[in-house]
Specification:
Helix content: 25-40%
Strand order of the largest sheet: 1-2-3-6-5-4
Order of helices and strands: EEEEEEEHEEEEEHEEHHHHHHHHHHH
Radius of gyration: 27 Å
Number of domains: 3
Shape: globular
Largest sheet: 6 strands, antiparallel, barrel
Structural class: alpha+beta
């Protein structure tokens, strides 16, 4: 996806084969723009989006532009570019398999293994892919591509690329593949401990599996220069390689759950301020706890419904404004759910049951114990939500440095939850991963003055 290109050719609409010359320009930070020497349609449709624009480059490549929005009379902003095939309508954009290279994937999954001792040096390079059957319709694999050169006195293995393969047992729409690519991105982000994006996407159509179609779309540029080391990652491919299928199946079972999306929001918004990042993480923790808690409510639902109906009747009879009445009734809708304080305490109980010592290793360097940490988190969340001045400053975080510490510890708690409850890591492996992650965070602390809130 980092590649930039410019392509001259002839362009037309699927129902209007008369072509117009023009130039397609693509940069990863701005996306694709099609500039025409004329117009594809009449003035009556000016500014209306076009789902599909077809093209043929001067060197003979078939090109499909998908989701095109007219900027001017002869210029279109294009969301997706497919090079290698013509799709007459959106429902024709289907793939049987795809191969994706992600930013930092090669740092996360390195196929080279070197062992050195006094008598010998052994270098191994894995050629066979790791495969995981996710369900009846989806297979995921980690593939390595290399070059091998040799002579009588020299052997050379050159690693070319690490790719993630996606294969469906029957052709699926591009939108389906796009969701899978995004879910895999989130998985890698969790492991890497930072953002990643697709660099290249290549798919095979159902009609001709040998026909490779390259996919291009806009990629944000604010993280391209960041290159994490394996020591900075929450976990690497080596940590899960023996249970690759098991881990991937569990991850895809959770596809689309809010906790992961909220967590990734904090990774993919580097300009997010401390307050917003903190509130997003508390929402993620609440969403995670709600998804795994055996007992989601304080009281039995039927009993609470009866109590709620009685309270609503009382509120409706009171001589108060309609606005206040509606707010009180709205609060009753969520009155049977656990508080953030209760959720955090139960999460620490899970850590204790699994013999994962989060409190001593990662909480007490800043707070007396987990209870003080929970108090600070809850009071800070309540203040930022309601701006209740009765919550004194010493009961909540008020400095940028304090927010930074609180945010990192909440992330550690959430990442620990993901590893033990969702991915099935063994407790000793969790502690090893979390300690590695914490050391990375400590190395990244910067000696600048944090803002005061």
């Amino acid at each position: 996806m980092i590649k930039e290109f410019e392509c001259d050719g002839i362009w037309w609409l699927p129902d209007k084969p008369d072509g117009v010359p023009g130039t397609l320009r693509f940069t990863s930070d701005k996306g694709a723009i099609l500039e025409l020497n004329g117009s594809l349609r009449g003035l009556e449709k000016l500014k209306e989006p076009e789902e599909i624009i077809l093209g043929s480059s001067n060197d003979g490549k078939e090109i499909t532009l998908y989701k095109c929005f007219e900027d001017t009379f002869s210029s279109f902003d294009v969301k997706y570019v497919f090079i290698g095939a013509h799709f007459q309508k959106p429902e024709d954009i289907k793939f049987k398999n795809a191969s994706v290279r992600y930013l930092h994937l090669e740092e996360w999954a390195n196929p080279l293994d070197e062992k050195i001792n006094e008598k010998e040096r052994i270098i191994k390079y894995r050629l066979e892919p790791f495969q995981a059957d996710i369900n009846d319709e989806l297979k995921i694999s980690i593939n390595f591509r290399s070059e091998y050169h040799y002579s009588r006195v020299e052997r050379c293995i050159k690693h070319k690329a690490t790719e993630i393969g996606i294969e469906t047992f029957k052709a699926k729409s591009f939108e389906y593949y796009r969701k899978i690519i995004r879910h895999l991105r989130n998985f890698l982000s969790l492991g890497i401990g930072g953002p990643t994006y697709p660099l290249t996407i290549t798919g095979s159509t159902e009609v001709n599996k040998e026909k490779k179609v390259k996919v291009f779309y806009k990629v944000p540029q604010d993280i391209i220069g960041y290159t994490p080391l394996p020591r900075d990652m929450l976990f690497t491919f080596e940590d899960i390689s023996k249970e690759f299928e098991h881990v991937m199946r569990r991850w895809f079972e959770k596809m689309g759950e809010p906790a992961y999306n909220l967590y990734c929001m904090t990774l993919y918004n580097p300009s997010m301020d401390f307050e917003d990042e903190f509130l997003t993480l508390t929402k993620a923790i609440e969403a995670f706890h709600r998804s795994i808690s055996d007992r989601k409510d304080r009281y039995e639902p039927e009993k609470y419904k009866k109590l709620r109906d009685k309270l609503e009747d009382v509120i409706k009879k009171e001589n108060i404004s309609a606005n206040l009445r509606n707010r009180l009734i709205h609060h009753l809708e969520y009155g049977n759910q656990f508080s953030l304080r209760k959720r955090l305490k139960q999460i620490f109980d899970i850590f204790k049951e699994r013999s994962i010592n989060i409190e001593d290793r990662f909480i007490k360097d800043k707070y007396k114990n987990k209870d003080e940490f929970i108090d600070k988190a809850v009071n800070t969340r309540n203040y930022l939500t309601h701006y209740d001045k009765s919550i004194k400053k010493d009961k909540r975080e008020t400095t940028g440095k304090g927010f930074y510490h609180l945010i990192q510890k909440l992330k550690i708690c959430l990442e620990t939850c993901f590893l033990i409850e969702e991915l099935g890591f063994e407790p000793e492996k969790v502690e090893e991963s979390i300690f590695r992650r914490w050391e990375s965070i400590r190395r990244q602390w910067l000696p600048f003055s944090y803002p005061t809130f």
